[in-house]
């Protein structure tokens, strides 16, 4: 009889213990007391850069609706250009360092110059993937935007320009450059 009662309480104890250790989804999703969740249009994980595309988002605010939009687009373009520039600089540094080139410094300088040209050229190919406008109670306009630039378009542009440069063409290996680029894009999307 004592064994049965002991077994009974053990089973109940284990059941309560296991039930108590389950993560409670309601608790995990509740906003802390005294805080209000802010949902920002054109933002969130679907607007992060990925292996397929560079993405950036921004907000612009003004009393004028058009200026609000211009501010948002300008800020998002600057953010996108910086992200592309940083990624491509890392790729070219890794690529140049991995090559057995006699003149790495000259190659690095050529790549950096090419990088600036291509980023400026490619920014004309960006797509607006989200745009929302609101008006505040004070009558100000807010524009939310998200922009995207295809990673494939960027790498193809680099390939085209690198094969036109006679000095870089000698040491340029497209497949190796593309591999380094794809590795960097994967690292960026994993963050």
Describe the structure.
The model has no long low-confidence stretch (mean pLDDT 78). Helices cover 59% and strands 15% of the residues. The protein is built from 7 helices and 3 strands, in the order ααβααββααα. It has 191 residues and is an alpha+beta fold. Strands 1-3-2 form a 3-stranded antiparallel β-sheet. 22% of the residues are buried. It has one domain.
Task: Present the secondary structure layout.
Blueprint: H1 2-20, H2 25-29, E1 53-62, H3 65-98, H4 104-122, E2 127-135, E3 141-150, H5 151-164, H6 166-169, H7 174-190
Antiparallel strand pairs: 1-3, 2-3
Brief sketch in words of this structure:
With 191 residues, this protein is of the alpha+beta class. It is 59% helix and 15% strand.
The stretches of 5 or more residues where confidence is low (pLDDT under 50) are: none
Q: Number of helix segments?
A: 7
Work out the radius of gyration.
Answer: 26 Å
Assign the structural class, choosing from mainly alpha, mainly beta, alpha/beta, alpha+beta, or little secondary structure: alpha+beta
User: What is the typical, i.e. mean, pLDDT?
Assistant: 78
Cα distance spanning the termini: 59 Å
Number of strand segments: 3
Domain tally:
1
Strand order of the largest sheet: 1-3-2
The percent range for strand residues is 15-25%
Helix content: 55-70%
Write the H/E string, N to C. Answer: HHEHHEEHHH
- Bulk shape: elongated
User: How would a crystallographer describe the biggest sheet?
Assistant: 3 strands, antiparallel
